[in-house]
Protein backbone atom coordinates (compact mmCIF):
# COMPACT_ATOMS: atom_id res chain seq x y z
CA UNK A 1 0.00 0.00 0.00
CA UNK A 2 1.37 3.38 -1.03
CA UNK A 3 -0.06 5.08 2.07
CA UNK A 4 1.34 2.47 4.44
CA UNK A 5 3.23 4.22 7.27
CA UNK A 6 6.99 4.06 6.94
CA UNK A 7 9.94 4.92 9.14
CA UNK A 8 13.48 6.22 8.79
CA UNK A 9 16.13 5.39 11.38
CA UNK A 10 19.16 7.65 11.67
CA UNK A 11 22.36 6.68 13.49
CA UNK A 12 24.89 9.49 13.87
CA UNK A 13 27.06 10.37 16.87
CA UNK A 14 26.94 14.10 15.99
CA UNK A 15 24.01 15.66 17.89
CA UNK A 16 23.71 18.62 15.51
CA UNK A 17 23.60 16.27 12.52
CA UNK A 18 20.88 14.19 14.19
CA UNK A 19 18.77 17.32 14.68
CA UNK A 20 19.34 18.48 11.09
CA UNK A 21 18.51 15.09 9.60
CA UNK A 22 15.46 14.69 11.84
CA UNK A 23 14.12 18.06 10.73
CA UNK A 24 14.80 17.37 7.05
CA UNK A 25 13.30 13.89 6.96
CA UNK A 26 10.39 14.86 9.17
CA UNK A 27 9.57 17.78 6.85
CA UNK A 28 8.33 15.35 4.18
CA UNK A 29 6.01 13.55 6.59
CA UNK A 30 8.16 10.53 7.40
CA UNK A 31 8.41 9.01 10.87
CA UNK A 32 12.06 9.63 11.74
CA UNK A 33 13.86 8.20 14.76
CA UNK A 34 17.40 9.20 15.64
CA UNK A 35 20.06 7.32 17.60
CA UNK A 36 23.54 8.25 18.80
CA UNK A 37 24.92 4.72 18.43
CA UNK A 38 24.23 1.27 16.97
CA UNK A 39 23.72 0.03 20.55
CA UNK A 40 20.87 2.52 21.09
CA UNK A 41 19.28 1.45 17.83
CA UNK A 42 19.46 -2.26 18.58
CA UNK A 43 17.88 -1.77 22.00
CA UNK A 44 15.00 0.35 20.73
CA UNK A 45 11.47 -0.75 19.90
CA UNK A 46 11.02 -0.33 16.17
CA UNK A 47 7.73 -0.19 14.25
CA UNK A 48 6.76 -3.11 12.02
CA UNK A 49 6.67 -1.04 8.85
CA UNK A 50 8.64 -0.37 5.66
CA UNK A 51 11.79 1.42 6.73
CA UNK A 52 15.39 2.29 5.97
CA UNK A 53 18.50 3.21 7.90
CA UNK A 54 20.58 6.36 7.42
CA UNK A 55 23.95 5.40 8.85
CA UNK A 56 27.11 7.40 9.47
CA UNK A 57 30.24 5.54 8.36
CA UNK A 58 32.40 6.71 11.26
CA UNK A 59 30.92 5.89 14.64
CA UNK A 60 32.57 5.40 18.04
CA UNK A 61 32.97 1.76 19.02
CA UNK A 62 31.69 0.23 15.79
CA UNK A 63 32.03 1.60 12.27
CA UNK A 64 29.02 1.87 10.01
CA UNK A 65 30.42 -0.86 7.78
CA UNK A 66 30.92 -3.19 10.74
CA UNK A 67 27.38 -2.47 11.88
CA UNK A 68 26.10 -3.27 8.39
CA UNK A 69 27.68 -6.72 8.76
CA UNK A 70 26.27 -7.09 12.28
CA UNK A 71 22.75 -6.36 11.05
CA UNK A 72 23.13 -9.05 8.40
CA UNK A 73 24.22 -11.56 11.05
CA UNK A 74 21.21 -10.63 13.20
CA UNK A 75 18.85 -11.07 10.25
CA UNK A 76 17.73 -7.43 10.37
CA UNK A 77 16.99 -6.58 6.76
CA UNK A 78 16.98 -2.83 6.35
CA UNK A 79 18.09 -0.91 3.26
CA UNK A 80 21.03 1.27 4.32
CA UNK A 81 22.01 4.74 3.13
CA UNK A 82 25.53 5.62 4.23
CA UNK A 83 26.54 9.22 4.91
CA UNK A 84 30.10 10.30 5.59
CA UNK A 85 32.39 13.29 5.67
CA UNK A 86 35.33 11.08 4.70
CA UNK A 87 34.28 9.20 1.58
CA UNK A 88 36.75 7.07 -0.32
CA UNK A 89 36.37 4.62 -3.17
CA UNK A 90 37.27 1.38 -1.31
CA UNK A 91 34.83 2.16 1.51
CA UNK A 92 32.08 3.02 -0.96
CA UNK A 93 32.67 -0.18 -2.92
CA UNK A 94 32.56 -2.30 0.25
CA UNK A 95 29.32 -0.68 1.38
CA UNK A 96 27.61 -1.06 -1.99
CA UNK A 97 28.76 -4.67 -2.43
CA UNK A 98 27.25 -5.43 0.98
CA UNK A 99 23.90 -4.10 -0.24
CA UNK A 100 23.84 -0.40 0.63
CA UNK A 101 21.30 1.63 -1.34
CA UNK A 102 23.38 4.81 -1.52
CA UNK A 103 26.63 6.32 -0.26
CA UNK A 104 26.50 10.09 0.20
CA UNK A 105 29.48 12.27 1.06
CA UNK A 106 28.87 15.35 3.21
CA UNK A 107 27.91 17.97 2.31
CA UNK A 108 25.16 16.51 0.14
CA UNK A 109 22.00 18.10 -1.24
CA UNK A 110 18.89 17.56 0.85
CA UNK A 111 17.03 16.19 -2.16
CA UNK A 112 19.75 13.60 -2.78
CA UNK A 113 19.15 12.13 0.65
CA UNK A 114 15.36 12.33 0.38
CA UNK A 115 15.40 10.61 -3.02
CA UNK A 116 17.63 7.87 -1.63
CA UNK A 117 15.32 7.44 1.37
CA UNK A 118 12.22 7.10 -0.79
CA UNK A 119 14.00 4.57 -3.01
CA UNK A 120 15.15 2.58 0.02
CA UNK A 121 11.68 2.53 1.58
CA UNK A 122 10.16 1.30 -1.67
CA UNK A 123 12.79 -1.45 -1.77
CA UNK A 124 11.92 -2.48 1.78
CA UNK A 125 8.19 -2.34 1.03
CA UNK A 126 8.71 -4.73 -1.89
CA UNK A 127 10.84 -7.04 0.28
CA UNK A 128 8.22 -7.11 3.02
CA UNK A 129 5.47 -7.85 0.51
CA UNK A 130 7.46 -10.75 -0.94
CA UNK A 131 8.22 -12.07 2.55
CA UNK A 132 4.52 -11.95 3.45
CA UNK A 133 3.61 -13.83 0.26
CA UNK A 134 6.28 -16.44 0.97
CA UNK A 135 4.97 -16.91 4.52
CA UNK A 136 1.42 -17.36 3.22
CA UNK A 137 2.60 -19.94 0.68
CA UNK A 138 4.45 -21.84 3.43
CA UNK A 139 1.27 -21.87 5.50
CA UNK A 140 -0.68 -23.36 2.59
CA UNK A 141 2.05 -25.89 1.84
CA UNK A 142 1.91 -27.11 5.44
CA UNK A 143 -1.70 -28.21 4.78
CA UNK A 144 -0.63 -30.69 2.09
CA UNK A 145 -0.27 -34.37 2.86
CA UNK A 146 3.05 -36.06 2.14
CA UNK A 147 1.60 -37.63 -1.00
CA UNK A 148 0.22 -34.29 -2.20
CA UNK A 149 3.67 -32.75 -1.75
CA UNK A 150 5.19 -35.53 -3.86
CA UNK A 151 2.62 -34.90 -6.57
CA UNK A 152 3.17 -31.13 -6.41
CA UNK A 153 6.92 -31.55 -6.77
CA UNK A 154 6.46 -33.68 -9.87
CA UNK A 155 3.80 -31.38 -11.33
CA UNK A 156 5.98 -28.26 -11.06
CA UNK A 157 8.84 -30.32 -12.51
CA UNK A 158 6.83 -30.68 -15.71
CA UNK A 159 5.63 -34.27 -15.29
CA UNK A 160 2.36 -35.26 -16.94
CA UNK A 161 -0.28 -37.13 -14.93
CA UNK A 162 0.58 -40.41 -16.66
CA UNK A 163 4.28 -40.01 -15.76
CA UNK A 164 3.45 -39.10 -12.16
CA UNK A 165 1.23 -42.16 -11.90
CA UNK A 166 4.11 -44.36 -13.05
CA UNK A 167 6.62 -42.64 -10.76
CA UNK A 168 4.45 -43.03 -7.67
CA UNK A 169 2.79 -46.36 -8.60
CA UNK A 170 -0.67 -44.77 -8.59
CA UNK A 171 -3.57 -44.72 -11.02
CA UNK A 172 -4.01 -41.62 -13.21
CA UNK A 173 -7.38 -41.00 -11.55
CA UNK A 174 -5.72 -40.89 -8.12
CA UNK A 175 -3.04 -38.53 -9.43
CA UNK A 176 -5.75 -36.22 -10.81
CA UNK A 177 -7.45 -36.19 -7.41
CA UNK A 178 -4.20 -35.37 -5.61
CA UNK A 179 -3.35 -32.73 -8.20
CA UNK A 180 -6.76 -31.12 -7.72
CA UNK A 181 -6.26 -31.10 -3.95
CA UNK A 182 -2.85 -29.48 -4.38
CA UNK A 183 -4.30 -26.71 -6.57
CA UNK A 184 -7.16 -26.14 -4.13
CA UNK A 185 -5.09 -26.10 -0.95
CA UNK A 186 -2.35 -23.94 -2.49
CA UNK A 187 -5.05 -21.70 -4.02
CA UNK A 188 -3.24 -21.84 -7.34
CA UNK A 189 -5.36 -20.77 -10.30
CA UNK A 190 -2.93 -22.13 -12.89
CA UNK A 191 0.16 -24.29 -13.27
CA UNK A 192 2.47 -21.25 -13.74
CA UNK A 193 1.15 -19.83 -10.47
CA UNK A 194 1.86 -23.14 -8.72
CA UNK A 195 5.39 -23.10 -10.15
CA UNK A 196 5.94 -19.58 -8.75
CA UNK A 197 4.77 -20.81 -5.35
CA UNK A 198 7.21 -23.71 -5.54
CA UNK A 199 9.99 -21.21 -6.28
CA UNK A 200 9.05 -19.21 -3.17
CA UNK A 201 9.21 -22.41 -1.16
CA UNK A 202 12.63 -23.19 -2.57
CA UNK A 203 11.43 -26.55 -3.86
CA UNK A 204 13.70 -28.37 -6.24
CA UNK A 205 11.59 -29.85 -8.97
CA UNK A 206 12.14 -33.48 -9.84
CA UNK A 207 14.34 -34.07 -12.92
CA UNK A 208 12.49 -34.89 -16.12
The poorly predicted ranges are none
Distance between the termini: 40 Å
What structural class is derived from the secondary structure elements? Answer: alpha/beta
Helix content: 40-55%
What is the CA-based Rg, rounded?
Answer: 24 Å
CATH-level-4 superfamily name of the largest domain: Response regulator
Strand order of the largest sheet: 2-1-3-4-5
- How many distinct helices? 9
SSE arrangement, N to C: EHEHEHEHEHHHHH
Provide an overview of this structure:
There is one protein chain. With 208 residues, this protein is α/β, with parallel strands linked by helices. It has two domains: 7-129, Rossmann fold, CATH 3.40.50.2300; 143-201, Arc Repressor Mutant, subunit A (Orthogonal Bundle). Helix content is 55%, strand content 12%. The chain contains nine helices and five strands, in the order βαβαβαβαβααααα. It has helices spanning 15-26, 38-42, 64-74, 89-97, 110-141, 146-156, 161-168, 172-186, 191-201; strands at residues 7-11, 31-35, 51-56, 80-84, 102-105. A five-stranded parallel sheet has the order 2-1-3-4-5, with helices on both faces. Helix 6 packs across helix 8 (172-186), helix 6 packs across helix 9 (191-201) and helix 7 (161-168) crosses helix 8 (172-186). The longest helix has 32 residues, at 110-141. The protein is elongated. The two termini are 40 Å apart. The model has no long low-confidence stretch (mean pLDDT 90).
Structural descriptors:
Arc Repressor Mutant, subunit A; 208 residues; five-stranded parallel beta sheet; alpha/beta; elongated; 2 domains; 5 strands
Amino acid sequence: MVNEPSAVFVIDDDASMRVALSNLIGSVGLDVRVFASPHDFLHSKRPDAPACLVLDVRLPGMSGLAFQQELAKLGIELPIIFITGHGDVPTTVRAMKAGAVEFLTKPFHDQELLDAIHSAIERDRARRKEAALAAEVRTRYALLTEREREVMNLVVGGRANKQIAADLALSEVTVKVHRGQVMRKMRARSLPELVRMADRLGLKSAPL
